[in-house]
């Protein structure tokens, strides 16, 4: 009997999430933990039938005893979808269902029925169109439901960790969102959780500039001089090991990354393209700063692949392994 229980939310019903959960169930015995889907059981069964994959479901409630781990078997905490779902065709009426699965997984982690939650991809648009105006992603939703002021999105693949100073913001709003207070909170959470979950004592963090060539001494933007440099100096004075701000175009080269535990990028598409180029399919998305452990895949709903069986389960496998390692470290 494994002591860890990992709650897996199925994400957008029309996307690849449900079939990735079925693929994961096929290799359940390879994980040193019990996997529990938080999903619509009928949907999982229909995707398994469509792809010709083995699946026996065991419907239970959070806190109930779980069945023995066997390949092709999966425990499920049922959350019914609102309308039946066709692969690749989003129906926003299921947007609330997607959040309901998250709520069940979060509550299970908070109650100690799960050691961690791992999320399959959702469609932000579908959730917003279901009436959840202001929704921007799992990361911010978890922050709000867990009642913390700040969280940090970090994606990690073998050899590289990239965290973000700002997450799901229109590019036009990014510069104004980079403040001394925000950067201080983000760097504090990043350093703290690199130690707590990944054993990096006194972690070294390389920080990107915002502007081309880190502002070129103020000729190509002032955010480095006005905000980033003074914030890093203040944090260095308190003992944090910070490099930069460095020009983002050359920071992601082997010489600069040598000995660095994580890079802090200023915005989503400054850091994530590099990470996904380096490790798409074997990376995990990790939310730092939460009172619970949450990881996710490095990809989206891939509607073009849904129902084809061609989606790669690699990132979900990695996300589960990272969640198991983090939950074990948190328990120590
Ligand atoms: N964790 C999450 O919930 C998450 C993450 C990223 C994007 N999204 C959402 O997903 C939706 C689609 O986003 P997108 O088009 O930018 O990215 P996407 O990752 O869904 O697709 C980008 C490309 O990668 C391919 N791809 C994605 N996952 C794959 C897999 N497992 N195996 C093989 N190929 C794969 C797709 O076929 C597509 O060509 C958006 O609504 C976005 O917000 C959610
Ligand atoms: N920014 C993530 C990515 O590009 O992979 C993705 O949108 C998921 O974010 P959440 O985990 O906050 O939903």
Summarize the structure.
This protein has 332 residues and is an alpha/beta fold. It has two domains: 1-148 and 291-332, Isopropylmalate Dehydrogenase, CATH 3.40.718; 149-289, Isopropylmalate Dehydrogenase (3-Layer(aba) Sandwich), CATH 3.40.718.10.
Description of the structure:
The protein has 332 residues and is α/β, with parallel strands linked by helices. It has 2 domains: 1-148 and 291-332, Isopropylmalate Dehydrogenase (3-Layer(aba) Sandwich), CATH 3.40.718; 149-289, Isopropylmalate Dehydrogenase. The protein is 40% helix and 18% strand. It has 12 helices and 12 strands. It has helices spanning 17-26, 41-51, 95-111, 124-129, 138-146, 171-177, 180-198, 223-237, 248-251, 254-257, 268-279, 314-331; strands spanning 5-9, 34-39, 56-59, 73-78, 116-119, 152-157, 160-164, 204-208, 241-246, 262-265, 284-288, 294-296. A 12-stranded mixed β-sheet has the order 3-4-2-1-5-12-11-6-7-10-8-9, sandwiched between helices. Helix 1 (17-26) crosses helix 2 and helix 7 (180-198) packs across helix 8 (223-237). The protein starts with a strand and ends with a helix. 47% of the residues are buried. Residues 16, 121-125, 138, 285, 296-297, 299-302, 304-305, 311-312 line the site of nicotinamide-adenine-dinucleotide. It is found in: Cytoplasm. One of its GO terms (cellular component) is cytoplasm. It is an enzyme of class 1 (oxidoreductase). Its EC number is 1.1.1.262.
């Amino acid at each position: 009997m494994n002591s860890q229980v990992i709650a897996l939310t199925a994400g957008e019903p029309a996307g690849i999430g449900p079939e990735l959960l079925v693929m994961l169930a096929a290799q359940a015995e390879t994980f040193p933990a019990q996997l529990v889907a938080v999903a619509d059981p009928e949907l999982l069964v229909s995707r398994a039938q469509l792809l010709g994959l083995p699946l026996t479901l065991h419907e239970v409630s959070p806190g109930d005893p779980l069945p023995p781990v066997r390949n092709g078997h999966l425990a499920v905490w049922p959350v019914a979808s609102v309308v039946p779902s066709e692969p690749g065709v989003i129906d926003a009426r299921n947007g609330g269902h997607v959040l309901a699965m998250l709520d069940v997984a979060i509550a299970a982690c908070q109650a100690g029925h799960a050691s961690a939650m791992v999320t399959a991809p959702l469609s932000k648009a579908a959730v917003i169109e279901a009436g959840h105006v202001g929704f921007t992603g799992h990361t911010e939703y978890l922050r709000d439901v867990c009642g913390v002021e700040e969280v940090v999105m970090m994606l990690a693949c073998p050899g590289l960790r990239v965290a973000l100073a700002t997450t799901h913001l229109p590019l036009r709003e990014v510069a104004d969102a980079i403040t001394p207070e925000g950067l201080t909170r983000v760097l504090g959470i990043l350093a703290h959780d690199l130690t707590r979950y990944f054993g990096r004592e006194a972690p070294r963090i390389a920080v990107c500039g915002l502007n081309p060539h880190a502002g070129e001494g103020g000729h190509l933007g002032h955010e480095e001089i006005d905000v980033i440099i003074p914030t890093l100096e203040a944090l260095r004075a308190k003992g944090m090991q910070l490099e930069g701000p460095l020009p983002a175009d050359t920071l992601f080269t082997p010489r600069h990354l040598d000995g660095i535990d994580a890079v802090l990028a200023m915005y989503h598409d400054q850091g994530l393209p590099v990470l996904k180029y380096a490790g798409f399919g074997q990376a995990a998305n990790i939310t730092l700063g939460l009172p619970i452990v949450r990881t996710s895949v490095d990809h989206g709903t891939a509607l073009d692949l849904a129902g084809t069986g061609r989606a790669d389960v690699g990132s979900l496998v990695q996300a589960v392994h990272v969640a198991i390692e983090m939950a074990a470290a948190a328990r120590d």
